[in-house]
């Protein structure tokens, strides 16, 4: 599928990867509907794009009502949705200290938002004979995320759901891709407030920034568009993640020992 002339919805589009995707899609000829829980942020991204290419709304990406609102906005403004980028994501909470509320929030945004969007769109795509679901997961969904159980577990779930969606609907016209980058220069990686020294939050940040090059959001967006043009399932802007994933699968215990050593090294610094 090519994006020229297509209609795309992007969640988490108030900044980061979502904003990068918006710029890349519009440059490729698509019409985009942006949504983010931060109304001012998503309005700012929308204002930076040609007015005839963009519409936006604000709300919870995991809410059925908001998903319906956004799909209806896309259909009434540009036409049926061709691409849905389930991109919104949050970190949740650190380690075992994460509260039930933080777990609920991470589950809602990082995985249930994908499930609810697919529930709304996939039956129509099957009837139309085409549609594309792009899930933003993380390398943490293939490997793990030191410092954050909420992030690691929900990103694993996002990968698992994308796999299931492709296996179940891939022969019925529904294409699926799953984005799994390591470090990307976003507010999630570099929050405004410095994490306390020695905290799980600080460990999480060091684990990501020391694992490989931190990419720009535009670099990631380019990798996404290249992948969906080829209809590739796994999108790996950091190519080395594939080798890491293979090492994990070839000897799980050895990989876990290596992660334990890596964590100790980070804690010692």
From TrEMBL:
<dbReference type="InterPro" id="IPR036291">
    <property type="entry name" value="NAD(P)-bd_dom_sf"/>
</dbReference>
<dbReference type="Pfam" id="PF00106">
    <property type="entry name" value="adh_short"/>
</dbReference>
<dbReference type="InterPro" id="IPR002347">
    <property type="entry name" value="SDR_fam"/>
</dbReference>
<keyword id="KW-0560">Oxidoreductase</keyword>
<dbReference type="GO" id="GO:0016491">
    <property type="term" value="F:oxidoreductase activity"/>
</dbReference>
<protein>
    <submittedName>
        <fullName>Putative oxidoreductase</fullName>
    </submittedName>
</protein>
<comment type="similarity">
    <text>Belongs to the short-chain dehydrogenases/reductases (SDR) family.</text>
</comment>
<dbReference type="InterPro" id="IPR020904">
    <property type="entry name" value="Sc_DH/Rdtase_CS"/>
</dbReference>
